[in-house]
Amino acid sequence: MNRLCITLGLIVALIFSTGAMHATPSLLRNGGFESDAGWSIASGASYDALHRRSGSRSLRVDSTQGVQIEQVIYAVEPGEKLTVCGWLATQDVQPASGSGGYAFMAIYQFDAAGRMV
């Protein structure tokens, strides 16, 4: 069985589904950050009730370093097609070093042995 790891830079909300967003339940636990459950969140990130897309809060990243926020999804079968949708809001993104700052959202896939594929 493959698994997916979702790593987020700066995210407001994320919906992860296996089909049409309105018809299929989400594989992602707590995609809107409405509770503290489901995510592995490093220091530099906190919940924000003021800035949100929907629901009562979002996840805010205030850090001069990279911040890793992730959730591992195990319920993915080989060959299964997935649809990933997300929202990302940025303001005053500054580089940690060098030139050019950025915020991003990434999805990584691992095989049964834990190797990135």
Could you describe the 3D structure shown?
The chain has one domain (2-110). 0% of the residues lie in helices and 35% in strands. The chain contains no helices and eight strands. The protein has strands at 2-8, 13-17, 40-41, 45-48, 58-61, 69-76, 83-87, 105-110. It has a four-stranded antiparallel β-sheet, with no helix packed on it. The protein is globular and about 40 Å long.
Count of distinct structural domains: 1
N-to-C CA distance: 13 Å
Rg calculated over all Cα atoms:
15 Å
* Gross morphology: globular
Order of helices and strands: EEEEEEEE
Largest beta-sheet characterization: 4 strands, antiparallel
How many strand segments?
A: 8
Lateral strand order in the biggest sheet: 3-6-1-8
User: Helix proportion of residues, in percent?
Assistant: under 10%
How large is the share of residues in beta strands?
35-45%
Number of discrete helical segments: 0
Kindly report the average pLDDT value.
Answer: 75
Structural class of the secondary structure composition?
A: mainly beta
Give start-end ranges of low-pLDDT stretches.
Answer: 4-21
